[in-house]
Amino acid sequence: MDGHFKKFAADAGTLFNRAKQYTEEKLGHAEKTELDAHFENLLQRADKTRAWTERILRNTEAVLQPNPTARMEEFFYDKLDKKLDRKTNTEFLGDDMINAGQEFGSGTSYGSALIKCGQTEQKLGQAERDFLSSSANNFLQPLKAFLDGDMKTVQKERKILETKRLDLDAAKARLRRAKSQGNKESFNLPLLFPKGEEGHILTVRDRASHSAEADLRVAQAEFDRQAEITKLLLEGISSTHAHHLRCLHDFVEAQQTYYAQCQQYMGDLQRQLGSYGGSGKGAGGSTSPSISNPLYPPTSLPTAPAPDQILNHNDESKRRAKVLYDYDAANMSELTLVADEIIHVENIPGSTDWVMAHRNSQQGKVPITYLEIMN
């Protein structure tokens, strides 16, 4: 019991000395052990790395999941080691388009177009989910692991180093006070040194000075040891930067793959839609206003040629063509196509977007973008 009390009293005394030293430093009444310039640079780099990693992580999460409620839900599922699997908004849109197209009838132009759009939206949603999964595994998780692991260890060792520094500076202050007080003593009271050689006599001043010097040596050794440990951890930040650079490359590659897939899917959809809505007129025959984008020039859908432009030609002018996509005729002057079938086509004078297609005894206009001319 007595040993526990002595340990408690010693710990309380150490905490008091640290608090006193810290307060005097803030007030400018005590000297502070300064670290070398290289060590200070390592500390500053560690602080910048932690601050910017936290900010990049937070903003990346906001980009990948803009909904803060959904982010919070994913956070709790992650803490519970459970996987939250849900559709993206793009996939929900695709489901609604497909259901609407089936409701209107897949044989109608509008219904067929809705189904095609819905299927493309589902592909886009799946590509988005792949991108989110890849970004989370290859970019976000390494950043989180660094902040929760290595950086917390660095912060912990830095706090220990700060306490060791306070102990060192407090020991230096005690030694200075002991020497200063000894110089002002007008008398020396001789005492027998408890553990010294028999007959050896020390003064009160010498005993206090020797004790302070011993404490200083212990504090200096502990500080030097902790400084070396902290320095090694801080120098490891360089390897962390190299690892984060590789993670950044993975994130950029995943993002590039995602946008490339989106461009491919939308390009295929645009070719499949062909002349749907090509007249640019809405209900009541009014023309929809065009929206210009300085980055992308406006594109116009092919306009069907006038009936008097459709002429009959002999078989020598016909060419064989392969159908790339299904196409539903919008009116009686067009011909319905099935993907991968072989038909014969001939040019329509005055039109570069449409050709006249022939299948046995059937014929009708079709968009040239749906075909691959074979000869």
From TrEMBL:
Residues 24-282 form the BAR domain. Residues 277-315 are annotated as: Disordered. Residues 316-375 form the SH3 domain. One of its GO terms (biological process) is membrane organization. It comes from Capitella teleta. This is Uncharacterized protein. Signal peptide: none annotated. Belongs to the endophilin family. One of its GO terms (cellular component) is membrane. InterPro entries: AH/BAR_dom_sf, BAR_dom, Endophilin_SH3RF, SH3-like_dom_sf, SH3_domain. Keywords: SH3 domain. The lineage of its organism: Eukaryota, Metazoa, Spiralia, Lophotrochozoa, Annelida.
